[in-house]
Design a protein that fits this description.
It is a single chain. This protein is of the alpha/beta class and 138 residues long. The protein has one domain: D-tyrosyl-tRNA(Tyr) deacylase (D-tyrosyl-trna(Tyr) Deacylase, Chain: A, 3-Layer(bba) Sandwich). The chain is built from two helices and six strands; from the N terminus they run ββαβαβββ. Strands 1, 2, 3, 4, 5 and 6 form a six-stranded mixed β-sheet that branches. The radius of gyration is 14 Å and the shape is globular.
Length: 138
């Protein structure tokens, strides 16, 4: 699994091109302030032990959110951090589990539309804690 976390003073998106026909349709975008955006690439081998990657991801997101003094986390599927990709349905199910775990511990969690290329608007401060990259391997 690859994870790029960017703390954003402002993050906005608008769906543009649907790439996965089996997922819901979206037309409207959203905008957020004071948010940690997690660009997540679930890789093919991650399917072998999703519980391990779930725990690693949740811990990393909580740590980065605390470091950046935010309680709002956005999960975004970003299949551009590695050549290896997990099956889309597995990835979406994984996101839903992580979303629920974070919400159960008091975080405000949102997901960008799954299976879309999005227009995105990112305003991120220039400090080291605002940009964190992690690779999880077993």
């Amino acid at each position: 699994m690859k994870l790029l976390m960017i703390y954003c003073d402002r993050f906005a998106y608008k769906p543009q091109v649907k790439t996965l026909p089996d997922f819901p349709n979206y037309e409207d975008g959203e905008a957020f302030e004071n948010v940690l955006v997690a660009f997540i690439q679930m890789e093919e081998t991650d399917a072998e032990d999703t519980k391990y990657y779930e725990t690693k991801l949740v811990k990393s997101l909580k740590w980065a959110a605390k470091k950046n003094e935010t309680n709002h986390i956005i999960l975004h599927s970003f299949a551009h951090l590695s050549m290896s990709k997990a099956e889309p349905q597995l990835t979406k199910t994984f996101f839903d589990i992580v979303d629920e775990r974070l919400k159960n511990t008091g975080y405000d969690v949102s997901q960008t539309p799954f299976g879309y290329f999005l227009d995105i608007d990112v305003k991120a401060p220039g400090r080291s804690s605002a940009r964190i990259f992690k690779t999880f391997e077993k």
